[in-house]
Amino acid sequence: MNEKWAALEVYHERTKSSGISDLFDRDPMRFDAFSVTFGDMLLDFSKTSIDPTSRNLLVDLAYAAKIEQKRDDMFAGLAINQSEGRAVLHTALRNLEGEPVYVDGIDIMPGILSNFESAKMFTRAVRNGEISASDGAPFTDIVNIGIGGSDLGPAMVTRALTPYHDGPRCHFVSNVDGAQISDILDLLDPERTLFIIASKTFTTIETMTNAQTAKDWAQAALGEKVKHHFAAVSTSLEKTAAFGINSEYVFGFEDWVGGRYSVWGPIGLSVMLAIGPEAFTEFLLGAQDMDTHFQTAALHQNMPVMLALVGIWHNNICGYGSRAILPYDQRLARLPAYLQQLEMESNGKRVDVDGNLISRNTSPIIWGEPGTNGQHAFHQLLHQGSRIVPCEFLIAARSHEADLDKHHQLLLANCLAQSEALMRGRSHEEVISILCEKGVTENLDSAAAHRTFPGNRPSVTLLYKKLSPRTLGRIIALYEHRVFVEGAVWGLNSFDQWGVELGKELASDLLPLIGSEEDLDERNGSTGGLLRTVAKLRQ
Ligand SMILES: O=P(O)(O)OC[C@H]1O[C@H](O)[C@H](O)[C@@H](O)[C@@H]1O
Fold first, then answer.
1. Residue 525: how many CB atoms within 10 A of its CB?
2. Residue partners of 413: CB distance under 8 A and separation at least 6
């Protein structure tokens, strides 16, 4: 591996002074050569500094990291999440033909397909009113209570697929901040509301606190009938029973589905209620399409592999520490937050699978907002800031609003303009000549300095026909496999998340001290000082 990294570093050092635009001058077919298509999706990475040699070196790196073997081990159900001793099988949730997948010698597919059937039956019954509120009338509102993977996936997907909603309205409560549940409950009628408590472990303090608050609120209006208004999704059936959830309304899954990879299974119940089982099946088929592509396409034509290698080029070779996710698709507004968990919780690690320190940077910092809003906020930094941030644009060729196509044309023009402006820039000389044409003569150099764009800033664009359930399934699976490939190249375990534990422990230690001024001596000076001030301010 080391010599593969070194070859990339040496090559980058030798070629880094040439610009991205020069690569287009040298190769008129660059767009075709540096883009990957899959169905009606296209990933364009021609606006990066990757050239034929660096691409080959990156693909060599992927081979040296044994990407294909590691990928096959994941799909085959090997316990690749070593620190938790688990298989990683979110891909089995979209294996709709039911080809056997074995965990410890047992085929898990019959169980997955039967859980899927139960979720579909429940969904149909809620949507057609057979499963109704305690007074016999249909549910109009669903509240998914969950956090992390039990919230971000369903919330992002539900919002992304708004044009396909034909079921009850869906709301999402995640934060333990009572402001969120309070604002949502204010909108709802307890008689018409079904709560889904979504938690893999059914121990997460935020979710359990919100679930209890929801139960108290519903019970105050419904009394004993409250049990008709609660469903749960979890791997712990004892805990859902202890919470008082009717076993017919409980949807189980297994620990080989990681939280941030769980939207494809029962955790996606709120999505299925909103869009219906048929559209949800399309969503799964989209992911399955990408799984097949990931498993079969040659590495240099493999969309997740190439997206991962572009990320590695920017992060490890060019030294760019963050990545902006810029969906020019308002309904993907939560995609950056979703990808923050997917990428940063999966690959934000500093030791490899064996516990040895990794000498390179791992996950970049992921952030972003939908376009065109971001253009009027932080794109200033993207174009002229002192740091280079590789950007990832996502856009559909067509919108769902046929009558508002003028909007969509503007959106497309803006998206393409941003990546072009980032790459092309505008030189000092160009600015001077523009200013001279306008008759500016005073402080010409300084005026030009402010208006100069350095350019040569990389971006990739993911273009798709329309944001349908199937396309969304493909997009999410694309990112999942990209994260897998990046993690595999760094040699880390993308499927555990020990880094969230310390804060949880300390929060439970601190809870009894909130509002108290006693026993603070053992805390560090800052936390002690903050606790004392909290106590004063709460008086
Ligand atoms: O689904 P749950 O068990 O409630 O977990 C919810 C979330 O909390 C954990 O702390 C992890 O950081 C996340 O990966 C997980 O998705």
1. 8
2. none
Percent of the chain with pLDDT strictly greater than 90: 96
- Active-site position among 376, 406, 438, 450: 376
Catalytic residue among 206, 282, 343, 345: 345
Q: Which is the closest atom of ligand 1 to the Cα of 207?
A: 4
Residues 126 and 236: beta-carbon distance below 8 Å: no
Pocket residues for ligand 1 (CB within 6 Å)?
146-150, 199-201, 204, 207, 259-260, 345, 497, 500
Categorize the per-residue pLDDT at 56 as very low, low, confident or very high, splitting at 50, 70 and 90. very high
Question: Which whole number is the average pLDDT over 188-214?
Answer: 97
Determine the Cα–Cα distance for residues 31 and 24; give it in Å rounded to an integer.
8
Single-letter residue type at 224: E
Instruction: Give the list of residues 6+ apart from residue 370 with CB closer than 8 angstroms, or none.
Output: 326, 327, 328, 329, 330, 332, 333
The pLDDT value given to residue 329: 98
* Protein residue whose Cα sits closest to atom 13 of ligand 1: 148
DSSP assignments along 419-441, one per residue? HHHHHH-B-HHHHHHHHHHTT--
What's the CA-to-centroid distance between 333 and ligand 1, angstroms? 21
Coil, strand or helix at 186: coil
Amino acid letter, residue 325: I
b/e 435-469 (16+ beta carbons within 10 angstroms → b): beeeeeeeeeeeebeeebbbbbbbbbbbbbeebbb
> Exposed/middle/buried for 252, CB within 10 Å: 0-12, 13-18, 19+?
middle
Helix (H) or strand (E) holding 11: helix 2-15
Ligand 1 mutation pick, 144, 200, 234, 505, max ligand atoms within 8 A of CB: 200
Active site residue 376: yes
For 193, phi and psi rounded to 5 degrees?
Answer: -110, 135
Distance in angstroms (rounded) separating the CA atoms of residues 47 and 30: 9
Cα 326 to ligand 1 centroid, rounded to whole Å: 26
* Residue 347 backbone class (left: φ over 0; alpha: ψ -120 to 50; beta: rest): alpha
Distance 81 CA to ligand 1 centre (A): 16
Q: From the alpha carbon of 497, which atom of ligand 1 is closest?
A: 12
Distance CA 490, CA 484 (A): 10
**CA 199 – ligand 1 centroid, Å:** 7
Crossing angle of helices 205-222 and 178-185, in 10° steps, is 30
The complex's ipTM?
Answer: 0.98
